[in-house]
Amino acid sequence: MTITETLGTWSALFMLLAAMTYLVAFVAFAWDMASHSRTLRRAEHHSRRDEQLVGAATAPAQVNSTAGTTKKADDSRPGLGANERGRGHKPPTRAVLAEHVADSSMRYTGERRPAARAALTIMVLAFLLHTAAVASRAIAAGRVPWGNMYEFATTGALVVAGVYLAALLRRDLRFVGTLVSGLVVIMLCAATIGFPTPVGPLVPALQSWWLVIHVSIAVAASGIFTITFAMAVLQLLQARRERAILAGEAPGMGFLAMVPSSQALENLSFRLNAVGFVFWTFTLAAGAIWAEQSWGRYWGWDPKEVWTFVIWVVYAAYMHARATRGWTGTRSAWLSIAGYLCVIFNFTVVNTVFEGLHSYSGL
Amino acid sequence: MTAGNPSRPSPGVRKAGMSTTASSRESSTARGAGSSSAAGLGKSDVELPALGPLGMARWAWTQLTKMNTALFLLLLLAVAAVPGSIFPQRIQDPAAVQDYIDNNPALGEWLDRVQLFDVFSSAWFSAIYILLFVSLVGCVLPRAAKHWRAWRAEPPRTPRRLERLPEHRSLALGGRDGAGAPAPGDVVADAARLLRRRGYRVAVRDTGSAAPSVAAERGMWKEVGNIVFHLALLGVLVSVAVGSLFGYKGQKILVEGESFANTLINYDSFTPGTNYNPDWLDPFSVRLDRFEAVFNRDTTDPRSYGAPLDFTAEITVQEPGAEPQPETLKVNAPVNVNGVKSFLIGNGYAPVIRVTDGNGDVAFEGPVVTIPSDGVYTSSLVLKVPDARPDQLGFTGLLLPTAVTGPDGMPRSVDPGLANPQLILSSYYGDLGLDSGVPQNVYVLDVEELTELNGMLSQSGPIAIDAANPVHELPEGKGTIEFLDVKRYVGLDIVYDPGRFGAFISFVLAFTGLLMSMFISRRRVWVRAAKGVDEHGRACTVLEYGLLARGEDPRLATEAERLSKLFTEQWGTADPPGDPAAHRSTNRAWSGPNHD
Amino acid sequence: MISHPSPASRPSRRRVLSLAGLGVLGLALAGCTEEDSLAQQANSGDQKGYIAGDGTVSEYPADQRGEPVQFTGTLFDGTTLSAEALRGSPALLNFWYAGCAPCRVEAPDLRELAERFDGQAAFYGVNLRDERATAEAFERTFEIPYPSFEDKDGGVLMALSAYVPPQAVPTTLVLDAQGRVAARILGIADRSVLETLLEDTVAEAA
Questions:
Q1: At C172, phi and psi to the nearest 5?
Q2: CB proximity list for B448: less than 8 A, separation 6 or greater
Q3: Nearest to residue B77, comparing CAs of C85, A218, C44, A311?
Q4: Which one of A71, A276, B237, B337 counts the least CB within 10 Å of its CB?
Q5: Which of residues 123-162 of B touch C (CB under 8 A)?
Q6: Structural domain boundaries in chain B
Q7: Where residue C25 falls among pLDDT bands split at 50, 70, 90?
């Protein structure tokens, strides 16, 4: 066995280990959701009783008061909320909802969540294994690890996990952990089962610096869109729950108590999507420049180009929806989801079923 | 139009004087905020114009330039593009379209009628994007004018109640330990200076009054970026149009040793721009001296053995009146001759064949271009010999670059290299149909009118010729076929696109504009100073300031903190030394009331 | 059927058209302009491997002709021949190759005309793609009496493109006695039209 082959085998092994570890992280996140939301419900219950006893006004952020932490003044400041746009609730409504959802600033509060801590540790471990797998693959092939669909999917999953972990440093986004780790597991499984490709050299058409630029930015954009997709799904669920709460019904879906309000989710995913949109614009243009160099035209409506364009237009619509009456909130979340479904379609069906110049799947 | 651009101030803020900047599109979007102006706007929306054609046109224009319409058109554009990936497109592959129509005659004709094979030049697709761009221009130009006026005007007047702004702070200056409080006028002047240093444009107001103030604004480039982005998209469209009007694209297959002159007559196929005159073709010629394909010969990994690693064409470019210029053409490295670019698009083998007819005369001799169909270059070959006598001859079959006979007795190619080239052919005689003048596909032999001589199922079996047995005698004395050599050929795309440069510039502008509009924050700050008392009841100067973001601005609170620090540093130096407590008390003497 | 656009008016009309084209960018993009023969060929996907002509004839009056053409080429029999050798009497140049269907259609007419104008006008073929044996087989089939240039390297073609570019297979050029291009036919040459053109040019020379 040569070094290349050995490294390739190691890469596959690491990938498998990473997928399994992500799966454990997924379970831990799910457990955290279940246990923590139970704690929250209990706390809610207690505080309601306190309210009745004391007859005091509702504390603005229940989570904080339960955890007995500081900075009440800060929390009562509108913070993010002041600049929030979109389908805003009136202040009294917001106060009602605040009891049932997490703080919109998504800061760490210091309360104890052992399951989440375990999940996070496992996720970091999985990320390290994953990095090792992708890196050994790159070394084995002697090039960037995104030359075919298997590599694109596994590297894309690495970016998703990386962006998520990096975001966690600044914001408490552990509530999306279940979705993110779940998606990463799906991406790894899809890559391994759907598009297994041995380590191999690049075909001449891909031997260009543009492969590094065009595809890496595309991977990054896809990673961001994956996370905003997860947030859009949560936003829809949360919006539904909020309506139920306001209508005085039983909210259900208790785990959403640890998720911020739908509006806070919308705001954050909008900002992430803005970055994703910039990346995607660059992907599109870098692709055009490369196509001009390789195929003699910068835009030829190849199926892949068509779908890249469709995705760009859908996210452009999403960006505009934000500033359009009647399109904020749930509708813009659906646009974000539609955009992500196009990304998935572009990656899977367009690569495998449609005939075009981008047929580098290695299938 | 982009993200986060049109601001939707919260209801309370609108009263604070921000409504001055709402453009027509913005105001339609601002309605969701539930401000009092919403009702009025909504009414004008529903009202039907009774103004005749002019009013009708104005009404249509208003509708078209609305954000809702633009959004709808955007989504429609996305949906309309989808069929372009489902059905074969003429701009991609006209032959595939023809195949599709031939295979589905009824459906194909119908699809062709609604331009589903020309989606991106179809009337309906064009209608959508033209409307979209009209809407864009109709929205962006007024906004540009508005922004121009806003830029020339001073920052908006100071709202009466700064505490209603999303970020609001106040500082108590001086007044402790007997130190005199700075005069409000001086404080405002200093604040204006500090803000200007931070990149704000400032206007000092109400000087001389009891409560002078300064209005400041920064991030005017955000809207510029937004406008540039949208106009640059228009630039991309114009560049594409210029390219498709005055450019061209042609294909030519060149066998080693052959030349191509950039004249229409020498092209295999040619797609002119709508307004391109082939007389404008720039005369130059290209000779293919050598083509080299490198395949993976690393035996350690059998799965990638034989995969292509590199294609290089050595060519000689000759311009009239100039010395011949040797050039190297590679897959990602085209050769540019005066803006006309030649691209290496394909390659394959061209076996050199000699056909002697039944009369004993050589009826054909030369390389025959074959079309590779897989990774080991199993290539299909069609050879028409219309000048063979007494009967015209036709051949179809395969070139196997490295032929190996399998256990089933069927020869197949196992490698793309030329280790054991073999031709496996069927032969026919009869009227090829070329003499009628009807154009024929050179890669297809229509055998319906022909009689088979050799074939897989015929008595005589297929022709199998290689280096060891190069000659095959055709049955019935129709002649012989001889396999002389194998040459390589390249498929070139020759492209001239005068819109290329414009498209690139437009993109750079668009991208810069996008970055500006996404990541510049447009903020307004108002600072007001007045005499007051601090929390200990001592006389002081109260410096009050509020911040307002236009559009998405997650860092507004951070900016407020920065200003706090800046102001504290400015006037904190007046604090008596060794009294840190006083310093702290200055900093955020009292927090504004909780808003909302 | 056959248009006779004067060459002088042609470029200016083109220029006007291109300006108008800029003005109606959107419309042009929308596919509202009529497809010309070239675009039709491009869209047909027939893979015939050559650019066909529609039989367009361009006739250049004596006072509007360009410079005498300059070229040097080699005939299939090895003789080197230059444009100067053709001066003194009208000449016809026919661009062809054996596998081109329309070339095979007009070949019998060219043979007859070559015989009819024998001694009055010199006929030459310019073969664009074939090797000698293939070209000779074609000449045998159609009993072509005149020789052809072997022009796989495009030398003659390139030189002539500077004057009146051949834009289809086949293309037929008629040179006057001074060696200037008097007429161009893109596509299959209609026999009577070509005959008239040759007669006019011969009459001019006389």
A1: -120, 125
A2: none
A3: A311
A4: A71
A5: 123, 126-127, 130
A6: 48-152, 162-212+521-586, 248-496
A7: very low
Which ranges in chain A belong to alpha helices (H)? 3-54, 62-67, 72-76, 80-83, 91-98, 114-141, 149-170, 177-189, 209-210, 216-246, 262-294, 303-321, 330-347, 349-352
Which chain B residues contact residue A327 at CB under 8 A?
A: 68, 71
Q: Nearest residue on chain B to C27, judged by CA atoms?
A: B126
Structure tokens that stand for A359 in this block: 């047929």
Measured between CB atoms, which of B265, B269, B361 is closest to C95?
B265
A–C touching, 3+ CB–CB pairs within 8 Å? no
A70-110, pLDDT tens digit by residue?
333 333 333 333 334 444 566 666 666 766 677 666 777 66
Strands (E) across C13-170 are located at 56-59, 72-74, 80-82, 91-96, 122-127, 148-150
Structural domains in chain C plus CATH codes = 50-205 (3.40.30.10)
Please give the DSSP secondary-structure letter assigned to residue A335: H
> How many beta carbons lie within 10 A of that of residue B301, not counting itself?
18
Among A294, A296, A291, CA closest to B331 = A294
User: What one-character DSSP code corresponds to residue A43?
Assistant: H
Task: For residue B386, give the nearest of C45, C50, C98 by CB distance.
Answer: C98
Would you state the structure tokens that stand for residue B48, as one six-digit string?
A: 């039907």
Burial code of C108-144, b = ≥16 C-beta within 10 A, e = fewer?
ebbbebbeebeeebbbbbbbbbbbbbbbbbbbbbbeb
Mutate to test the interface with C, among B318, B387, B436, B495 (most CBs of C within 10 A): B387
- Give the β-pairing of C181-186 and B335-337: unpaired
Domain B162-212+521-586 has CATH 3.30.300: yes
pLDDT mean over B453-480: 89
Would you say residue A310 lies in a domain? yes
Q: Is residue A281 a contact partner of residue A312, using CB atoms and an 8 Å limit? A: yes
Number of domains in chain A: 1
Q: Which residues of A touch B594 (CB under 8 A)?
A: 76-77
Sign of the alpha-carbon torsion through B18, B21, B25, B26: negative
Q: How far apart (Å, rounded) are the C-alpha atoms in residues C149 and C91? A: 14
Whole-number Å distance between alpha carbons of B186 and B174: 13
This prediction's pTM:
0.78
Evaluate whether residue A360 is within a structural domain. no
The string of DSSP codes covering B10-42 is -HHHHHTTGGGG--HHHHHHHGGG--THHHHHH
Q: Give the residue from A76, A298, A299, A315 with the most B CB atoms within 10 Å of its CB, the best one to mutate.
A: A298
The helix, strand and coil proportions of chain C, stated in percent and rounded to the nearest 5, come to: 40, 20, 40
pLDDT in tens, A220-274: 898 889 889 989 999 999 898 888 888 887 777 777 877 888 888 888 889 889 9
CA of B324, closest CA in chain C: separation in Å?
Answer: 13
Mean pLDDT of A106-115: 74
How many CB atoms are located within 10 Å of the residue C151 CB? Answer: 26
B387–C138: do the CB atoms touch at under 8 Å?
yes
Counting Cβ atoms within 10 Å, is residue B203 exposed (0-12), middle (13-18) or buried (19+)?
A: middle
Residue C165 neighbours by CB under 8 Å, 6+ apart:
B263, B264, B265, B278, B279, B281, B283
Which of A207, A282, A323 is nearest residue B67 as measured by Cβ atoms? A323
Residue of C nearest to B122 (CA): C30
Distance from CA of B439 to the nearest CA of C (A): 6
For residue B390, cis peptide bond before it (omega within 30 degrees of 0): yes
Those residues whose C-beta lies under 8 Å from the C-beta of residue C158, and which sit 6 or more positions away, are: B261, B263, B283, B285, B318, B320
Are B32 and A328 inside 8 Å of each other by CB?
Answer: yes
Q: Which residues pair with B384 in a beta bridge?
A: B394
Token pair belonging to B296: 């993976």
- CB burial of residue B574 (10 Å; 0-12, 13-18, 19+): middle
